[in-house]
Structure formats: structure tokens, C-alpha cells
């Protein structure tokens, strides 16, 4: 008997799943001779699909992996067998991988040796976008447990990689300003003015623009040691997972990005115990006003114009074509509120 599975959690996406390599499960009276016999069970999954995007690395791999390991193999060692285990990807997330398993990973695409395990699970369990539902787990794991897991992976021997003049500040809370640049969409067009406004209110501001080559232990050290974070909706806000409970987190929401902002970062922030705020921009703060009239249906009523589907075309317009120029008079009130909460957090937690 042969059963084929695609061990990737986005089962509902018909345009993604066909690209995931299948794993064949074969049952019968005989099996290949074992070359290596493992004492620990194995978990097989794919790092293909959207993997390589920082948001999807957590949403489609590490959060489902955390749920699955805790459900299927609680308090057990497990060997990770990965399809599309690209060297750069494994290197980038080596601390997380080693926290999941003390064993070297097995690259299913390039390992031709027959391995035998006492048991195996293929695929991962997901509870939805950036979420862990404790009601679906017998041991009631939550997003707080996942945050503790990340602290275990990155919290030891932190490399303090932020400017030394900020390290010993006793009076000014540190604000991380997540930055985007280039032709990527959702760029903060008046970033320097926003930075200056935050500094005038009382923050020390660190502009944070992570690259694919930025070691995650350095990003963790910076964000975990700061007191507040601001950023326009985008993959870089996945670094909000590194914030301490009680931390102030403001997500700037572009036009028509309310739903995606909520499911990607608002819920996880609240589940981790962050002080979450969002700044929904007005039409005048969007660069789309230069392309579409303010009474155009693309600006005024997307649902009436395009329907409710978040299609690739709609996503391209609102996520890739749209930049943001914040109204400083309006945003300054948010900064003042952030400062009060961040100052209180700093005095309590350091």
C-alpha cells in the first residue's frame, strides 16, 4: 500500500501545495535493510513553499513545528527529517533547530542511506495564522510557551549588537523603528522626521532594517533588550516575537491592510502579553492617493470594487505599490502614549 503526502501546512492553497514535493508512505510485508537505526522517533516536514520569507518561516514552519512536537512527542527527543533543507536556511535558524532537537537534521533530498526509527510522523499541525490555540492542545500550550521557547533558543549569551551609547541608558527607553527601503512597498517616506519626533519625545531610537544575512541572535539581543517597537505592516514585524511581555508594539496599518495586519501580528502580540497599538493611516498618508483619486473605488471601497477576495492583484496594489508618509501631528500623540508605557516598562523590567 502506498500513500503520498505533501508535508507542508498550507493545505487550503491550491496554487502552493502542488509545488511541495511528495513523501511516499509504503506499507508491506518487507522493507529495505536498515543502515542506521535511531532510538528516537522522527518528524518529517518540508521547508519549501513560502519558506525563505521571514514571516512564513515562523508561520508555516516553526510555529506548526512547535505545536506538532508538543502534541505528538511531548518531553521526547525527536529527529527532524526535512525536505528542501537549504544550507543557508538551516544556518540562519540553527539555534531554533537545535532547540527542537539535539540530533543533526536529516536532509531527505540528499541522504540516500536507509534510516530506521521506532516511529514517524509526517507533516505538521497548524492552528491558523500566527496562532496557537490552547483548546486544541491537551497540555494547553500557548503563544507564551512559544515565546519562552525562542528565549531558550536565543536568550543565552546574547550578543548585544546595538549601539554602545544606548546600552546603559537609565533614563531614555529604546525604541526600535523597523525600516523598509527600496522598491518593496510600504516604505516609510518620512522616516527621518518620525525618528526625530520620537527622539524629541524622549526615546533613543534604533533604525532596524534586517537583512537575510543578519544573525537572528543579534536581532533577538537588540529587540529583547529594548522597550518599544514601531513598524509598517510587513515580514520584518515577525521580529515582534522577540519582544518581552509588557513591551509596547505599534503596527502601522496601510490602507486596506486591516485584515492581514490583524491575523499576522495583532493576535500574536496580544497572545504574548504585549501592549499592542495600531496606527491606521488615513488616505492622505498613503502614496496611492497620487495614483488614484480619493473618491476612486480602489481607495474608497475595495470590497465593492473587487469583492472580498484577497487576490494577488489586490495584494500587489496595497502591499507592493503603497508607501506611507505619516501625519506627524497625529502620530506624535501615539509616540507620547508609547513613551509613557515604555518608560514605565523600563523602570519595572530594565
TrEMBL record:
The subcellular localization recorded is: Golgi apparatus membrane
GO annotations of cellular component type = Golgi membrane
Glycosyltransferase 61 catalytic domain: from which residue to which, for each copy?
154-249
GO MF, one example = pentosyltransferase activity
Presence of the UniProt keyword Transferase in the record:
yes
As for membrane topology, the entry says: Single-pass type II membrane protein
Q: Name one Pfam family in it.
A: Glyco_transf_61
Task: Write down the superkingdom of origin.
Answer: Eukaryota
Q: Which PANTHER family match?
A: GLYCOSYLTRANSFERASE
Please state what the protein is called.
Glycosyltransferase 61 catalytic domain-containing protein
Which organism is the protein's source?
Quercus lobata
Amino acid at each position: 500500500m502506498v500513500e503520498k503526502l505533501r508535508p507542508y501546512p498550507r493545505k487550503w492553497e491550491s496554487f502552493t501545495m502542488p509545488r511541495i514535493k511528495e513523501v511516499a508512505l509504503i506499507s508491506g510485508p518487507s522493507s529495505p535493510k536498515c543502515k542506521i537505526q535511531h532510538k528516537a522517533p522522527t518528524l518529517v516536514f518540508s521547508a519549501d513553499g513560502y519558506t525563505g520569507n521571514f514571516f512564513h518561516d515562523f508561520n508555516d514552519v516553526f510555529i506548526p513545528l512547535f505545536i506538532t512536537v508538543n502534541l505528538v512527542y511531548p518531553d521526547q527527543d525527536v529527529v527532524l527529517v526535512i525536505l528542501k533543507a537549504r544550507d543557508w536556511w538551516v544556518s540562519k535558524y540553527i539555534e531554533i533547530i537545535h532547540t527542537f532537537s539535539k540530533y543533526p537534521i536529516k536532509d531527505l533530498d540528499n541522504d540516500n542511506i536507509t534510516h530506521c526509527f521506532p516511529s514517524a510522523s509526517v507533516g505538521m499541525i497548524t492552528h491558523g495564522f500566527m496562532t496557537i490555540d490552547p483548546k486544541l492542545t491537551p497540555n494547553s500550550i500557548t503563544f507564551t510557551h512559544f515565546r519562552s521557547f525562542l528565549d531558550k533558543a536565543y536568550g543565552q549569551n546574547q550578543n548585544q549588537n546595538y549601539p554602545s551609547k544606548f546600552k546603559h541608558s537609565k533614563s531614555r527607553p529604546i525604541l526600535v523603528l523597523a525600516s523598509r527601503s527600496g522598491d518593496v512597498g510600504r516604505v516609510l517616506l518620512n522616516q527621518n522626521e518620525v525618528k526625530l519626533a520620537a527622539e524629541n519625545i524622549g526615546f533613543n531610537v534604533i533604525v532596524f532594517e534586517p537583512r537575510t544575512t543578519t544573525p537572528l541572535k543579534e536581532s533577538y539581543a537588540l529587540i529583547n533588550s529594548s522597550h518599544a517597537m514601531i513598524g509598517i505592516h510587513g515580514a520584518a514585524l515577525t521580529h515582534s516575537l522577540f519582544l518581552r511581555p509588557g513591551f509596547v508594539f505599534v503596527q502601522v496599518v496601510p490602507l486596506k491592510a486591516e485584515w492581514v495586519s490583524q491575523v499576522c501580528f495583532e493576535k500574536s502580540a496580544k497572545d504574548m502579553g504585549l501592549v499592542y497599538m495600531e496606527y491606521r493611516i488615513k488616505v492622505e498618508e498613503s502614496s496611492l492617493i497620487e495614483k488614484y483619486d480619493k473618491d476612486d473605488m480602489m481607495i474608497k471601497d475595495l470590497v465593492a470594487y473587487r469583492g472580498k477576495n484577497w487576490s494577488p492583484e489586490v495584494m500587489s496594489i496595497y502591499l507592493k505599490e503603497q508607501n506611507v508618509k505619516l501625519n506627524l501631528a497625529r502620530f506624535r500623540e501615539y509616540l507620547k502614549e508609547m513613551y509613557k508605557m515604555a518608560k514605565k516598562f523600563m523602570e519595572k523590567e530594565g
